[in-house]
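Posting here for the record, re: pyridoxal-5'-phosphate.
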Amino acid sequence: MLFLQNVSKYARVLTATGAILATNAVFAQHEVDDSADAGPVKISGNENAFGYSPAAMTAMMQSLGGINRYARTQAEDFTAAVAAHEKVPANFILPTPGSGPVLSMTALAYAAPGKNVVTVTPGYTQLTNLFASQGGTVKSVPLNENLAYDLKAIEAAIDKDTVIVYICNPNNPTGTVPDPEELKAFVRRIPKNVLIFADEAYLELAPGGVEKHSLAPLLNEGLNMIVSRTMSKAYGMAGLRVGYGMAKPEILTKLRPYYQGGPNLLALVGGTAAILDKEFLAENIANYAKVREMVTKELAGLGIKFAEPNGSFIFMETGIEAVEFQKLMLAEKIEVGRPFAPMTKWARVSIGTEDEMKRFLVAFKKVMTAQGKLKG
Ligand SMILES: Cc1ncc(COP(=O)(O)O)c(C=O)c1O
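Prediction output follows.
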């Protein structure tokens, strides 16, 4: 259903670009696949099921003829759009293919034997795993009873060998956010020689959004901090690979040796158009909020424990080992997230469309009842 809506939405775009004849065949093919309903509902990888800005699609299609050139002006335009959007100077911005490369570059630039990164468990491990692979140490602090950051415990874990504190906000896999004022006070307080890494991959989707929670405005205070943001989540462009890191130039200079190139020309053009299309982003954020509320109400009604979700996923207690839960749900054609140690009897479920989540809830009740975790 949603797919068909998307088809007509994009078809309007395609007509506008004069490319309708060439691409109709592609959509027709997809329509056939969709009605065959072959695959499971994919709510495992925190992908955006609602789609992306039609203006971004138009811009990319109009740029197809230009990909014989390197993306110099497009990178400048993207950087300028990000700088205006984030209210930071353009020389604070490093465009990357998704935000993952910012995490990886930071790990490579700062890791060394004897040095440590402070993080939380369970948390997102792209930066910390790479840090450890370079001989560094990972100091993991448990989350508090609400599965949220215990900022005092994180501060207490910082020692003379700490080079990075990694804050993922909202935290993946729990989806919780710290109080924004407490977080800001925390980052201003910790030792100046320690780099704060604020991974804000899902932050647009938190109630109050980037405006309420982001640490990016603090970059203008000259803090020792990197903020990363991606267009893979709220903007719905995970497959395009576009994101960015933000930090003062001295920090970006430290990362530069590990830079493997920016987003490609189409990603830059699409990313720029998506950033300017504030209306579509607001629509996507509203879609997430609506479906997230629908699912959490149902879970609460069933007496299922879950962490306060602020991103594109919900972390819930099933009482079943996550690997087993994945298998049981897959048998019902629902693909849910992998285990997150040490909370292996909890499941991370990404938020899909309303129809997809209704299908999830039916399967969830069936599986949980059959496993004796819910009264039928
Ligand atoms: C917390 C977090 N940070 C960063 C990323 C990297 O994603 P991308 O490279 O698509 O921006 C992900 C991906 O799922 C994530 O969950």
